[in-house]
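Hi everyone, sorry if this is the wrong subforum. Our group has a chain we'd like a structural model of before ordering constructs, and none of us has done structure prediction before. Sequence below.
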Amino acid sequence: MRILGIIILYNPDIKNVLKNISKFIDHIDHLIIWQNSSCEGLEKMVGEYSNKLTIMGNKNNQGIAYPLNVATNRIKESSSFTHLLTMDQDSEWQNFDSFIDTVSLLDNHSIYSPNINNENNDCTTNTKKVNDCITSGALFSKYALDKINGFNEVYSVDCVDYDFSYKATANGINIYKICNARMVQTYGAPQISKYFGIKSNVYSAQRSYFIVRNHMLLWKDHNKYLSSRFKINILKHYIFVRIVKIIMMEDHKIKKISSIIRGLFDGLMNNRSKKYT
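Answer:
Right subforum, don't worry. Here is the predicted structure as tokens:
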């Protein structure tokens, strides 16, 4: 197994990123660090890993799908790698070595994901077949990358992972959760209400728009693969509960709520523009 990794950075805490990279870099062959923003001090601080790194990106936010496609094309055009590892800057592996040890015993045609935040840990064996996985911590076989025509740049960030997962399923590619492989993932910028003790993952108005718009497009594109529970969660957590939390504890309330409503409308109207206006 020869692994090319990519980690995508946006306004990162460089020291924290380096700590997270140190948890897996010894077990992969090369790592692309993609800059979606200015990452001051990055080149100096990654010096100890320089022989295994390539720094890319123009420091403008190009989303997730585009850099993932750059890494995918590198694998497709080369015989140097067999798998692609995709990472977020806020993802911290607990035991990447166990993940790789387990995957090495399995087939070379699937997609593999860790046990993230110990969520939905209903495993009865160490390997569980699942319907989808997020991109962070996922290991894609070259076979899967060849079979699917890249990551969907219309989605850009939100639902890129689910879109790829359901396309994989449609093409007979299995997705497995490796239950003993633990990874901690932070979503958004958690904030606690001082009045009610309620936790909210805070997003900008623009990100709030695309979260809702893209989930509605996902519903249209992959309706038969989305469970009723998943659809209910889209409406409940990304729209109704999110609006309540914005009213209770976030700034820029009107702008964020109007962005959510517009995202819902544009999703229903099949608006696939990558622009937020």
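For your construct planning: The longest helix spans residues 228-249. The first strand starts at residue 3 and ends at 9.
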